[in-house]
Amino acid sequence: MVKYAIAILILFYSCEKEPRIKEVPDPIVDFWGIDTSSKNNLSTKFDVVVYGGTPAGIMAAIEAKRTGHKVLLINSTEGYLGGMLTNGLGNTDVIHPTILGGLSREFFARVKNYYNENSNWFIANVPKYGYNSSVPDLMFKFEPRAAQTVFRDMLIENQLDILHNDRLRWDGGVIMDVDRNIQSIIMESGKKIIGKVFIDASYEGDLMAKAGVSYIVGRESNADFNEKYNGIRRVSSDNRNQFPTGINLFGNSLVNPALEAFGSGDSKIQAYCYRMCLTDIEQNKVEFSKPLNYEEADYVLLLEYLKLYRNIPFFDLSMMPNRKTDSNNSGPFSTDFVGGNYEYPEADYNLREEIRQKHKTYQQGLMWTLANHPNVPENIRNETRRWGLAKDEFVENGHWPYQLYIREARRMRGSYTITEFDCSGSLKTEYSIALGDYPMDSHIVQRYLDRYGYVQNEGQTMAAVSAPYGIDYRALLPKESECKNLIVPVCLSATHIAYGSLRMEPIFMTLGQVSACIASLAIQQDVSLQKVDYEDIKPVLKTRRMVF
């Protein structure tokens, strides 16, 4: 997320330079070999089928299992379960920790318990980032390996059936009945999975899309919902994510020669990146390497920007325990691969893999360039070389996160659409099932040439949310005419700018649990999800100690 430069600089230079360390722990290898079932012998009939091994998917599966249902969790991606939380996003995006309840609160309590064990600290006399005095039983900053351990323990304790490394068949993978229920899904392996209720907890919304549910990719115009912060957005010259005036780069393939009207809609999406886990501990550091497909032309804009550099960090160094970082985009040219992701939401699996690899090459090339290129000032090269990838993280993947940060992909057009008026509190929901509190945040969407021919960034927004706001449960549900037994906690129904506040993993975890609660009621009452009464949902959430 966007942070203020001064805070980053203070954090950057205030850390202890030469901490005392114990022996660095061994990397976690083959972490997710924890299936409680056999793929070949797995039953194909379930009460609840959860598609997507994201935090939302894990919480949905655990809630459904604890309620007594027969549940299948489908981990449709390679690498670790746990989505972004196990892949570098350790800097929790929540403003008011008191909005967390249920399983999301349990997760952060387990993180605190993990770090209560002295054996999980190998650096002495270092600040234990992530403690919050208002909620002393929780911890909000953590290493990837901590999240991996917590999720692993929760999955094993609940003895979940997990189908790993299998995906929805791209064509003909969803079988609908005449009443618009998903009858079954067909996997690439040929396995047929039958369920009473399906939960699409994926970042991309593939199950939702293949079921014929309406959705949108890109930005609405402000006029569509009478919003102020949607559509094409001007980024002010004093914003740290805007280029200084004077960079002329006509003809660059990722710079548009012109721009549509501000406030109008388009099909473009905010940029993606990998959340690197870095460290400056020599015994635990892997130096940045030059990727095989490195192209210096990809960094021409960076080198031009350096001629007018304003001393803005090139990547965040949000400190996690054991002197690791959650490193995110920072400044006008950074880890976000602007313009490289437009095709991703609708792309097939092969094209998505190409896009992920291009993002990885771009970002690894950026780090190598900052650390080694002769046209990069020496002070920047030296400071970049101080950091490296954490040796004890992602060892099977060259110490690089598996999960690309899919900030936004498809967004459902469901039974209710959340807009900026819900997030700002000017519209009070009568059907709240969870609370959100993060600013309406969009990263850079595109680059263009202004009327003077200078490169500018467009789309970055950080619109304040004055207080926690209610999330309407109808935004998780498709229109009943489109699908009656599918619920969507991640690619939920919201405008682009409202989704910028909702798209936080603690909120996704909460919505995943809520989805399972609603699914359970629909199964018990033998009705469509849309027919579950809100008055029946509330007491269930209260028994789970959820905050809504």
Rg value? 23 Å
**Content of β-strand:** 5-15%
Structural class: alpha+beta
> Low-confidence runs (pLDDT<50, min 5 residues)?
1-18, 29-40
Shape: globular
Please tally the helical runs, counting DSSP H or I stretches of 4 or more residues: 13
CATH fold name of the domain at 45-217 and 472-543 = FAD/NAD(P)-binding domain
For the secondary structure, the number of strands is 22
What is the name of the CATH architecture of the domain at 45-217 and 472-543? 3-Layer(bba) Sandwich
Kindly report the name of the CATH homologous superfamily of the domain at 45-217 and 472-543. Answer: FAD/NAD(P)-binding domain
Mean pLDDT metric? 91
How would you characterize the largest beta sheet?
Answer: 7 strands, mixed
Distance between the termini: 24 Å
Which CATH top level class of the domain at 45-217 and 472-543 fits? Alpha Beta
Q: Name the helicity range.
A: 25-40%
What does this protein structure show overall?
The protein is 26% helix and 15% strand. The protein is built from 13 helices and 22 strands. The strands form 8 sheets. Strands 2, 3, 5, 6, 7, 8 and 22 form a 7-stranded mixed β-sheet that branches. It has a 3-stranded antiparallel β-sheet with strand order 10-14-11, with no helix packed on it. It has a domain at 45-217 and 472-543: FAD/NAD(P)-binding domain (3-Layer(bba) Sandwich), CATH 3.50.50.60. With 548 residues, it is α+β, with helices and mostly antiparallel strands. Mean pLDDT is 91; it is low at 1-18 and 29-40. Helix 3 crosses helix 4 and helix 12 (505-525) packs across helix 13 (534-543). It starts with a helix and ends in a 5-residue tail after the last helix.
